[in-house]
Amino acid sequence: MFERPKTGERAVLVHVDIGVKPDPDELEEFQELSASAGALPVALVMGSRKSPDPRLYIGRGKVEEVQEEIAAEGAELVIFNHPLSPSQERNLEREFKCRVVDRTGLILDIFAQRARSFEGKLQVELAQLRHMSTRLVRGWTHLERQKGGIGLRGPGETQLETDRRLLNNRIAQIRRRLEKVDSQREQGRKARNKAEVPTVSLVGYTNAGKSTLFNNITDSGVYAEDQLFATLDPTLRRVDLEGEGGMVLADTVGFISNLPHELVAAFKSTLQETAEATLLLHVIDAASHQRAVCIHEVNDVLGQIGANEVTQIEIYNKIDLMEGDGPRVECGEDGLVRRVWLSAKTGEGVGLLLEALAEFFYLEHVHKVLYLQPADGRLRARLFQTGKILSEQVTDDGGWELEVQMPRKEYERLLQQETEFESRLIA
Predict the structure, then answer these.
(1) 147 annotated ligand binder
(2) Would the CATH topology of 10-101 be identical to that of 196-363?
(3) How many CB atoms within 10 Å of residue 280?
(4) Annotated binding-site residue? 354
(5) Is 79 annotated as a binding residue?
(6) Pairing of strands 9-18, 77-80
(7) 196-363 CATH pick, 3.40.50.150, 2.40.10.120, 3.40.50.300, 3.10.180.10
(8) Is there a binding annotation on residue 226?
């Protein structure tokens, strides 16, 4: 929805540590975000404060330092690695005489460039409009007066009120369209559940290697680059597991620290795939010094979308960048797989991951043989509805001998609800 120049914009980057020690990894991530948006950083202004200035976020001295850099480098843009209030953004633009973009606006701009699908573009536009709605006054201060004069007398709206009304109308229109897309996704999820096809969702911090792993497992051509937010539109592919049928693998958008709430809300329907997945593969950059922080940030977002209760297997990726680390599987005290160390780029350890997935889904199902009496027709119908009947033989007395495979949760539910079920088990 915004026109952007074909070449990068000359930008002054501003990073201030508020009440904490300087973190070089955080600064590096900020520079990568700026580069991903297409900015051309020409200067970096750093500082520290106990608390943000309520009017300018930074102090007067830093404002003058930024002004000097703008004049010296001919910068057209100032990017802050912090969320700014509408008034702070407006005041800073008056001081700098150029555009000011905060961390939220920067991430939204990257998403706007990456969106390819119809749904993705709608979701990004919705997030942008929500962010913009609090900043309308900045663009219309010169028109805050009642309409008047010949041909202009109307309902008495100011230009600001008119623009806010049009913005709200567009937001409502996008929401209606996204509701239709969401209903289509819901139909797809119901169809997979009915066919008993489990969904495995790749989640993780941005640039952890999710798309590279996805391409390695599915032999797909999903766009994968060493840059932040290379993937925006979710992709689903079917993967066959040896001896356990198939599953659907979903590649999702990466998370980041201080992920804008507008994006979490706008991408709710897309992230629903993650919340309703059977299993999450949490991809982690094992070579990153900040991997503990990244794990915490991802789990925090998963909690926001209601996916923190879904079973996780941690995938420690990029072992090719670490000395002395080879592919391996780590299990918990219960014997279940908890971590897999691999390299999605070289393929080392991907086979171990597929074996772990096959084992996981094997343990998630039970295989039983039952003898049902002729009077057990209702129980037989329920088994056909909830389980996979591997074989059925009619006995001499008119009953049935069934070999059935079913999800472990359904098996436990049958034991509780059907009093005669346990007595019908043979093996």
Answers:
(1) no
(2) yes
(3) 26
(4) no
(5) no
(6) parallel
(7) 3.40.50.300
(8) no
